[in-house]
């Protein structure tokens, strides 16, 4: 990697070194991934069977939650990737990159042997097409704002341009990206699977078909169109230029909830499964605990490593019930017994959140969200100050969530906590795609709902910009606050790494004071793997290493 500006050197090195040992990762790479040493020589062949909730999307331009991203990182490679255990940023389709002295123009040199699954070679123009498609307003992507700092983004949004003019294919193997202001994290952003190259000819031949069977450039290719609510099957891509996977394919088996998947796991039909709530101790006793918290091998099959992620409950700050009512929002947050949720449902394996930023992120500060604590009396006082003593005058409030995984039991405990201070609620579960549409649309029909965020790249910016910037694609609290916007954008544009980090920390505290959501707990692994799976790494960014895992018959 070539760097021409010392502040960028410092910024990237500081981020990478500070999180070594926390171990976060995403994406595939030609470079060898650091993994725990396998006990035996890897065996090639076989099919890996993976538990998955029904994704909303698997097209990289629209995928946004962990289910879709998990599939995409098996079938797409981007410019760069993260090592699954050391968090080192590595070249992928890009062999190197450099930045101009003013920090505005990044130049990526591409490898010349990367191929799409249709056999065509990947060129720089495929990135330009994919990025323009991602950012285009008609795509309505939750991740379109990844490219908001690229020249031409605003014109694309306004409809005065049909392309992202700041992205230029200088030649087939040189991609140049011009920003509107310096952004030291840009190579990490470029590692996100949503920014992977896409073959224009396949998308435009049949967009609907592409959405069901994306054609990428990764180690695996779609074996058949997505079978909704049943499975997504991928097979090894024979012409993959990077490190070849050991397994012949992956069967992502879609389940409606964790208990159903766990039954199938115990019957021997899965190699990975999310543990249902309350099952951790029994699972460890039966299957053994992972030695590093992230790598599964026979006899060490239950993972519990900390994840760079947050489980939260968002409050729609634009709903008339909560708009301009910080005391009411504070009451909700203060009422929640986070430790009870952690102990009751996760056997104490997760940690209570006191900020939206998880421990292990560079710049993490304990207690940055001062209302992220359990204090019933303070909750009652805030409720009275808001004009609703003992909840009087409040309507029954829907608690919304996607009803796959473990969200229902969590919301039941939240419901009981709110009832204890006089707030009546009703549980409102729905299919994931329907839930996220409701949360994204906001309006008067969405009040409070569960959400979560696992770092796409290990920096505070990844949390505050996408979750709280008014134009952020995952701003499910619908925050529209000029002071918060300014704090986030000012921090992004700073060239001095120390000043930028201090500004990000101040922005986190400002957001906490605004109280747009309820930070509940930091994610950690809560998963089990079969004794047929070897060297199966599940990173702290909640992504699986499908290249280095191998299975026995």
Write structural notes for this entry.
This protein is of the alpha+beta class. The protein has two domains: 6-243 and 526-551, Dipeptide-binding Protein, domain 1; 306-524, Dipeptide-binding Protein, Domain 3 (Dipeptide-binding Protein, domain 3, Roll), CATH 3.10.105.10. Helices cover 30% and strands 19% of the residues. The protein has helices at residues 6-18, 66-75, 124-135, 153-158, 186-190, 200-205, 207-212, 258-266, 280-287, 326-334, 338-346, 376-385, 407-420, 432-441, 460-468, 482-493, 497-514; strands at residues 47-52, 80-82, 89-91, 94-99, 105-110, 167-171, 174-178, 220-222, 231-236, 249-254, 272-274, 295-296, 302-303, 306-315, 351-352, 397-402, 425-430, 448-454, 517-524, 527-529, 533-534, 536-537, 550-551. The strands form seven sheets. Strands 15-19-14-18-16-17 form a six-stranded mixed β-sheet, with helices on both faces. A four-stranded mixed β-sheet has the order 1-10-9-8, covered by helices on one side. Strand 8 and strand 9 (231-236) form a beta hairpin. It is globular, with a radius of gyration of 23 Å. Residues 1-38 have low confidence and may be disordered.
* Arithmetic mean pLDDT: 92
Morphology: globular
Name the helicity range.
25-40%
- Rg is 23 Å
| Biggest beta sheet summary | 6 strands, mixed
Beta content: 15-25%
Number of discrete domains: 2
What is the number of helices?
Answer: 17
Alpha-beta content class: alpha+beta
Strand order of the largest sheet: 15-19-14-18-16-17
Specify the CATH class of the largest domain: Alpha Beta
* Cα distance spanning the termini: 41 Å
Any idea what the CATH architecture of the largest domain is?
Alpha-Beta Complex
Q: CATH superfamily assignment of the largest domain?
A: Dipeptide-binding Protein, Domain 1
Low-confidence stretches: 1-38
Query: Any idea of the CATH topology of the largest domain?
Result: Dipeptide-binding Protein, domain 1
